[in-house]
Amino acid sequence: MSLLNAENQGIALHVINHQDYQAWLQNQQPNVVQWLTATGFEGKGMSLIPSADGNIACVVFAVKDSREFFACGDLANQLPAGQYFLHANDDDKIAIAFGFLTGTYRFERYKSSKQALPVLAVGDQTIVDKATELAKATALVRDLVNTPAQDMMPQHLSEVSAQLAVEFGAEFSEVVGDDLLTENYPTIHAVGRASQHQPRLLDIRWGDKQAPKLTLVGKGVCFDSGGLDVKPAAGMRLMKKDMGGAAHVLGLARMIMAFNLNVNLRVLIPAVENAIAGNAFRPGDVITTRNGLTVEIDNTDAEGRLVLCDALDVALEDEPELIVDFATLTGAMRVALGTELPGFFATKDATAQGITDAGLTNQDPVWRMPLHQPYMNMLQSDIADLSNCASGPFGGAITAALYLQKFLPDDIDWCHFDVMAYNIRALPGRPKGGEAFGIRAVFDYLQTRFS
Fold first, then answer.
1. Strand pairing partners for 71?
2. Which residues are catalytic?
3. Most CB contacts within 10 A, which of 83, 126, 340, 408?
4. Interaxial angle between packed helices 154-167 and 244-258, expressed in degrees from 0 to 180 and rounded to the nearest 10
5. Burial of 323 (0-12, 13-18, 19+ CB in 10 A)
6. 98 neighbors 122 (Cβ within 8 angstroms)
7. How many Å apart are CA 383 and CA 176, to the nearest integer?
8. 95 pLDDT above the threshold of 70
9. Where does the pLDDT of residue 401 fall: very low under 50, low under 70, confident under 90, or very high at 90 and above?
10. Is-contact 255 355, C-beta < 8 A?
């Protein structure tokens, strides 16, 4: 991470709001005023101010609102390599440091050369620690999603989970391959059995066992061919990101453990590859799920909800106070809200409002969608308790959420996030590729709820 605690060490970097520029300018040295005036700088964007010997004397970076978490997302791309010391309002430094760090993110695992990046110094260890941990969680999600499926199959996701558990003193276990049948995880096994990479259920436990119980569940479909209902080439191209839900809960879990939240945390990840082989599950098959409900397979490309329903059922065994799941579940949600605004469903209004408010505060917006119960009849099956797909093309995100809700009791406090997990365009601090959506919003809410 390109952030360190060092008082007044480096080139002075002034981050100011555009509306404060004139007041700031009046307090600067004559050479700074002369340079900014001569170059026509109007308090928007960046200016590198030279010293008499031709080096950089200081930098001014003016933004609309320095409290906005991605306002400084382009800083690292615009600054020459070197060390800079941050001058800004104290209340804004967390957001500035976070934006700077997310802007330094590079996925260079397969690159033959690495890019030199600037370093930001902040004279406050608390700010350094908080911004670094928030950025580490985001980087973890991005790295996992960006990694090609060849190096991010269920066993690799298991290794990452185990390493995270070791780092924070958590417990890790897993159920692998045919043991899924022995331990009664039939839908996870059915979806993953056609792959040479054995399916598994990953399980992390951390925290005070007397603390409120919180369970996170993440869809870990490490590659999705669509199964026998095979996707077209264009639809399959980015399916390395179909384990994005798992990446999100690992990133969120990292924040929870790093900041030592007062929770008894459990993380459950059904990790599979939805592959094609002679033993692949088929359209028309009927699977008896972990909780006993039978599901007719209308489409093998609606596999995420199948692996999640077994994981949600085992999550209930601990009687958690709150269950939150993340999944790259439906294209319908992307049609409804686009790729950059994650939709979520919630059974409790107070929880939904708390997460929504936290997202607005932290520039990590989320949008609540309705669990519209009349749509449940779209999942009717003639031969089983329900179908894994709706009978029509409309309301797909809602019917997917309703399918999951079918496996939970009516009184449960549950949130289901349907996320893109990927930036299809570059924005400040958010390069193209894997992205974390909603985890800072949820974390901020959890901090408030479980403080």
1. none
2. 231, 305
3. 408
4. 10
5. buried
6. no
7. 30
8. yes
9. very high
10. no
Report the distance separating Cα 5 and Cα 124, nearest Å: 6
Residue for token pair 């200081």: 58
Question: Taking the complete model, does pTM exceed 0.85, yes or no?
Answer: yes
Separation of first and last alpha carbons in the chain: 28
Whole-angstrom distance, CA of residue 67 vs CA of residue 52: 33
CB 278 within 8 A of CB 360: no
- φ, ψ of residue 418 in degrees (nearest 5): -110, 100
Distance CA(160)–CA(180), nearest Å, equals: 20
Token couple for 39:
């170059």
Q: Would you tell me how many other CB atoms lie within 10 Å of the CB of residue 450?
A: 17
Residue 227 has φ and ψ, to the nearest 5°, of 70, -150
pLDDT attached to residue 118: 95
Cα dist from 153 to 221, 231, 272, 374, whole Å: 8, 19, 7, 38
Average confidence (pLDDT) over 222-227 = 98
Q: If DSSP codes are grouped into helix, strand and coil, which group holds residue 163?
A: helix
CA-only gyration radius of the chain, Å? 24
